[in-house]
Design brief:
Distance between the termini: 26 Å
Mean pLDDT: 95
Strand content: under 5%
Structural class: mainly alpha
Helix content: 40-55%
Largest sheet: 2 strands, antiparallel
Radius of gyration: 12 Å
Shape: globular
Number of helices: 6
Oligomer: single chain
Low-confidence stretches: none
């Protein structure tokens, strides 16, 4: 099943590109999986899937499991990757990523 309208082969390739610990780069991942070129509506759908607790924000624990939203067999992000990902997306410094911050992170 395609995630947010993404091509399964692209998602698989993007996941393979960051299979090793500490190799995750959100910019490369979003480009490789095709999310960077998706519509604002698709980005919102992706955000809603990643926001597991429906809080309206992606918190650190949800970021840690980010890759598993694309494939159940994907690895969890390392603490270092999770903190770097959060820092890149949390533009207002509140310790979580809102939908607008997420969209900016993807398009950035």
């Amino acid at each position: 099943m395609a995630f947010a309208g993404l091509n399964d082969a692209d998602v698989k390739a993007a996941l393979a590109g960051c299979a090793a610990a500490d190799s995750f780069d959100h910019k490369k991942f979003f480009k490789a999986c095709g999310l960077a070129s998706k519509s604002a509506d698709d980005v919102k759908k992706a955000f809603a899937t990643i926001d597991q607790d429906n809080s309206g924000f992606i918190e650190e624990e949800e970021l840690k499991l980010f890759l598993q939203n694309f494939s159940a067999s994907a690895r969890a992000l390392t603490d270092k990757e999770t903190k770097a990902f959060l820092a890149a997306g949390d533009s207002d410094g509140d310790g979580k990523i809102g939908v607008d911050e997420f969209a900016a992170l993807i398009k950035g």
